[in-house]
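Troubleshooting log. The previous structure file for this entry was overwritten by mistake, so regenerating from the original sequence record. Sequence copied from the archived sheet and checked twice against the printout by T.R.
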Amino acid sequence: MENNNVTTTVADEVNGEAIQQEVESASASNRRYLRPKEIAAYLLTSFGQKNLSQYVNAFRQFFAISFLGMSGSTYGVIMFIESIYDAVDDSISGLIIDRTRTRWGRLRPWLIIPTPFWAIAMIMLFTTPSFLVHEWQKVVWTVIAIFVYNLGMSYFGAWTIMLYNITPNNNERDNLIATSKFTELFGVFLPSIASMFVGFLPKATDNAIGMQDIYTGFAVIIAVIAAFTAFFGFSGMRERVPLASREQMQEVGVIESFKNVFKNRPMFILVLSGFFNGFKSVGASSESFYWMHNSKNVAHGSIAGLFTGIPNYIMVPLAPKLIRKFGAKKVAVASGIFAGLAYGATFLIGLAGMNRSSGDRGFLVDWDGGNTIVNLAVLTICLTICGLPNQLMNVAGAVLQGDVYDYSEWKTGMRNEALVQTVQNYFGKAANSITQLLSGVVISAVGYVARKDEFGNIVPESNENTLIGFWAIFCLMPAIARFLYGVTLMFFNVDGKVKEQMLKELEIKRRERVNALNADGEATEAAE
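Regenerated output below.
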C-alpha cells in the first residue's frame, strides 16, 4: 500500500513538472520581446539596404555596358569570376561572424564595420572617370568596384541574420518578416525615381545634365541613405536568442562545423530552389534594355512599376495568414508555379500578331507604330498578374530560411546561422555564376551593340532580332525561374508535424541552455 502511495506521489510530481514545463513553454512562446524602436531600426535598415541592392542589381549591368563602354561578353565573364570569388569570401566571413563575441553582440558590429567598403564601391560602379581610356583600364576599375562591393556585403549580410536573433518568439518573428517585406516595397522607390529622371529630363547638351550624371547622382544619394540606416540599426537593436559560449564554439572545430551544416537537408533544398530562381536575375538585369529599346523610353518601366507594385501592399499583410493556414512550404510552391505560368502567358501575348513576312514583330516586342498607352496598359496588367505572388514568395521564403536555421540548431545544438548562410551562399553563388555569365552573354547573343548620340545619350535599337531577343529575355527567364523554384520546394521536409516537433524540442533546449548559464553565473559568484 505504501509503495502504491509512493508511486502515486512520484507520478504526480512528474506530471506536475511536465505541466509546469508546458505552462512555461506556452508563456515563452507568447511573450513579446520587440520594442517599437527595435522594429523601426530593423525596418529602416531593411529599407536602406533594399534601395541599395535594388539600384545596383537594376542598373549596374546597364551602366557598365551603355556608359562605360564594356561589351556584354566581357561583363559576363567578370561577373562569372566575381561569383566564384564571392563564394570563397563568404566562407571566411561566415566563420568570422559566427564566432564573433563582443559587448555589442555577435551580429550588430557587422552592420557598421563593412559600411565604407560597399558605399565607396557602389559609387565606383556608377562613375566613369576620365582616365579610363583603354578597355583594360575599364575592366580593372569594374573588377575592383565589384569585388570590394561584394566584400563589404558579405559581412553586412549579418543584418539579415538579425531577424532570427532579436526575438525567440516564432510568431513575433514571422510578423516582423511580413512587416519588413512590406517596408521593402518602398525600397524600389529611389531606383524608380532615377528611371523617371532619365526618361523625362531634357536630353543632355553641353550645359545640361545627362543620363550618366543622373545615375551617378542617385548612386551617391542611395549610398548615404543606406549607411545612415545601418548605423541606426546598430544602435537600435538587441540580440536575444541564446548562443553557445565562446568555449563551446571552440570545442567544435571548423571542419566539424562544416560537416554539421552539410547534414542540413532543408538547406540544400533552398539552395537548389534559389539556383533555379536565380535565372530571374538574367531577365531583371536586362529590363532596362527592354524599356529603353523596345518601348523607346526607360521611364516606361517606372510608370508600370507604380501600378504593378500595388497588389504587393495587399499580399504582404495577407501572407502571414496564408502561411499560418497552409504552411510556408505550400504557399511558396503554389506562388512559384503560378508566377511561372503567368510569365509564360505574357510572352505569348506579346508575340500576338507577329508575322516575319509582313514585318509585324508583335505589339509588345516593338512599340513603334503602335499605341504607346495601350501597350503600356496591357503590359502593366500582365506584369501585375505575374507579380501577384512575389511578396508571398518573399515572406514564405524568409520563414523557410528561419526553419533552416532552427533545423541546424535542432540537430547539432549550435546556432550557426552565418555558417549555414555561408554554405548556402557558396553553392548559391557558384551556381549563380552561371546566371551572371548569362546576363552578359545574352545581351551579346541578341546582337546588341550600344550606340550613342553626340551628347553621350543612348540611341534606341531598331534591329528586329535584337528586339525579339530582349522580349524573350524579359519574359522567359523569369518564367523558367519561378516555375522551377516552386517545383523544387515540394521536397522541403521541415513542414507539418516535423516542424511542430522541432519547435517543441528547441524550446526545451533553449530553456536548459539559459538555466545552465544562470547556474554557472551563480557558481562563479559563490566561488568569489
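The first helix runs from residue 2 to 30. Archived copy saved in two places this time.
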